[in-house]
Automatic annotation (TrEMBL):
Record keyword Transferase present: no
SMART domains: AAA (SM00382)
Species for this entry: Pararhizobium antarcticum
Family named by the database record: Belongs to the ABC transporter superfamily.
Protein name: ABC transporter ATP-binding protein
Organism ancestry: Bacteria, Pseudomonadati, Pseudomonadota, Alphaproteobacteria, Hyphomicrobiales
Domain ABC transporter: 4-233
Length: 242
């Protein structure tokens, strides 16, 4: 059954149309990698799903319920949680306090502080540390944990690797593996194609606001996604080379 349905979504920044006629459906347990070059519209799409940026046209429904115009704090209660680019933690608050904040606008469910600490064991010793004093990897784990505390049906992850060393990114992804195998539905914006395709069940590539490739991950090669990334994808793009 469809969990998330996105139909003909247009999202604007003033005169600039950042997302153009985007449609896709997600089922429970899907892990969607949303890829594309800088400025392709990935973050704008994610923010519009989270309610941080209302679309100019189109429809977003979760579990069959229209939420196109629902404000972001109510979307959290409906089951959508965003881990924004840059993490946006409260740096003067502790890990535990940040995690508890995730509960306030969320809904009841299986995610508790203890479960977050068992998914991200590197946070246990940092429980009472202010997040401003944490390493990048610890901050990212806290941001993901905070989103999970709202017990989302869908977790939106925007560039979890940004600003982290390759070693730390490996660790964050190893921790994400627990989520990926526990049936959590995830939309993952990731610049690193190999990494994204390594964990995703589905890949959508955006170019200049449009979807130029949408495929089950196992039915598409890295080469095909790279072509779509640069606008050379044969089936879906008018600007095909040759
Ligand atoms: P990146 O990987 O660089 O984050 P992206 O695929 O996430 O890129 P967006 O950040 O969604 O792309 O940007 C899509 C388009 O919207 C770009 O042309 C960008 O310049 C523009 N844009 C994004 N945010 C704003 C904003 N707040 N005001 C005006 N234009 C914006």
């Amino acid at each position: 059954m469809t969990l998330l349905s996105v139909q003909n979504l247009d999202v604007r920044h003033g005169l600039l149309q950042a997302v153009r006629d985007v449609s896709f459906d997600l089922s429970r347990g899907d892990v969607l990698a949303l890829v594309g070059a800088n400025g392709a519209g990935k973050t704008t799409l994610l923010r519009s799903l989270a309610g941080a940026h209302l679309p100019a046209a189109g429809r977003i429904a979760l579990n069959g319920q229209d939420m196109t115009k629902v404000p972001s704090h109510q979307r959290i209660a409906m089951g959508i949680a965003l881990v924004p680019e840059g993490r946006r933690l409260f740096s003067q608050m502790t890990v535990e306090e940040n995690l508890l904040l995730g509960k306030t606008s969320g809904r009841p469910g299986d995610w508790t502080i203890d479960r977050v600490f068992s998914a991200f064991p590197n946070l246990v010793a940092r429980r009472h540390a202010k997040t401003g004093h944490l390493s990048g990897g610890e901050q990212q784990a806290t941001a993901i944990g905070r989103a999970l505390m709202s017990n989302p049906d869908i977790l939106l992850l925007d560039e979890v690797s940004l600003g982290l060393s390759p070693l730390v990114v490996d660790r964050v992804y190893a921790q994400l593996q627990t989520l990926l195998t526990s049936g959590t539905t995830i939309i993952l914006v990731e610049q690193d194609l190999s990494r994204a395709m390594g964990v995703a069940s589905r890949v959508i590539c955006m170019l200049e606001g449009r979807v130029v490739l949408d495929s089950p991950a196992e039915q598409v090669t890295r080469d095909e996604v790279t072509k779509a990334y640069f606008g050379l994808h044969r089936e879906n793009n008018e600007r095909v080379a040759s």
